[in-house]
């Protein structure tokens, strides 16, 4: 089998060498696309065992902390029946990494996020007049469901149930929801310090925002917010 694969590799290289030079950029584009597909299919995420995060996380911009002219939203989504399909570091990393990647792809500016075994929250700004959140979420749910079902040997299983989005139009409500999402792992008793939970934005926020910004956002109370969050996630 090894020799057969090596022969195939040699034949492909020989064929590539005979291609006109003008077509090579197109060939490279196809190869790059195939590599990305293989990466997603195999869920090839390299984790740092010290913190449980990908070795190279595609972090977003520095925090903006202002309402967007196009739209600022808080989004919550849950698995069907609140099942813990994403329990464990590898599966949590899968969802978070896909969220960060797709936000960049769809030009959605993330301000806060928290990913758990059976749900997630995020606060984000849209940058275009057409709201791309539905498309982002559809891709996120499809991609992660396909991978986790292959890992669990359950093809065709419905993983995600639904999502809820609320547009934020008042500054105080926006700041309170930012803090709510940053601190969500503490609310669910998964950690006592938000920045120590690897699959949320708190550590990124504290590292990239100014100390004054951190103090301001963390000062907003959220105990009276009406957000569906009775999921009781597990690690």
Describe the structure.
By secondary structure, the chain is of the alpha+beta class. The protein has two domains: 2-42; 48-218, 2-Layer Sandwich (Alpha-Beta Plaits). It is built from eight helices and six strands, in the order ααβββαββαβαααα. It has helices at 2-17, 24-42, 89-105, 133-152, 171-182, 184-187, 202-208, 211-218, and strands at residues 47-48, 53-54, 71-79, 108-115, 119-126, 160-167. The strands form two sheets. Strands 4-5-3-6 form a four-stranded antiparallel sheet, sandwiched between helices. Strands 1-2 form a two-stranded antiparallel sheet. Helix 3 (89-105) runs antiparallel to helix 4 (133-152). The chain is globular and about 65 Å long.
In short:
With 235 residues, this protein is an alpha+beta fold. It contains 8 helices and 6 strands.
Q: Strand-residue fraction?
A: 15-25%
Coarse structural class: alpha+beta
Approximate shape: globular
CATH architecture descriptor text of the largest domain: 2-Layer Sandwich
Reading off the top of the CATH hierarchy, the class of the largest domain is best stated as: Alpha Beta
Helix content: 40-55%
């Amino acid at each position: 089998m090894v020799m057969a694969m090596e022969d195939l590799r040699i034949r492909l290289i020989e064929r590539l060498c005979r291609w006109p030079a003008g077509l090579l950029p197109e060939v490279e584009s196809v190869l790059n696309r195939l590599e990305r597909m293989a990466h997603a299919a195999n869920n090839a995420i390299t984790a740092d065992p010290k913190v449980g995060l990908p070795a190279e996380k595609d972090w977003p911009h520095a925090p903006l902390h202002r309402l967007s002219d196009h739209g600022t939203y808080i989004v919550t989504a849950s698995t069907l029946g609140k099942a813990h399909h994403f329990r464990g570091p590898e599966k949590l990393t899968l969802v978070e990494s896909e969220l960060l990647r797709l936000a960049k792809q769809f030009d959605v500016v993330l301000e806060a996020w928290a990913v758990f075994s059976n749900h997630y929250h995020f606060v984000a700004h849209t940058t275009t007049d057409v709201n791309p959140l539905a498309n982002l979420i559809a891709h996120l749910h499809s991609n992660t469901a396909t991978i986790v079902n292959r890992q669990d040997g359950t093809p065709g299983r419905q993983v995600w149930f639904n999502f809820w989005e609320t547009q934020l139009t008042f500054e105080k409500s926006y700041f309170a929801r930012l803090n709510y999402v940053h601190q969500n792992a503490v609310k669910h008793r998964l950690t006592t310090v938000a920045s120590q939970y690897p699959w949320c934005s708190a550590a990124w926020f504290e590292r990239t925002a100014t100390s004054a910004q951190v103090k301001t956002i963390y000062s907003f109370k959220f105990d009276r917010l009406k957000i569906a969050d009775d999921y009781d996630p597990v690690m």
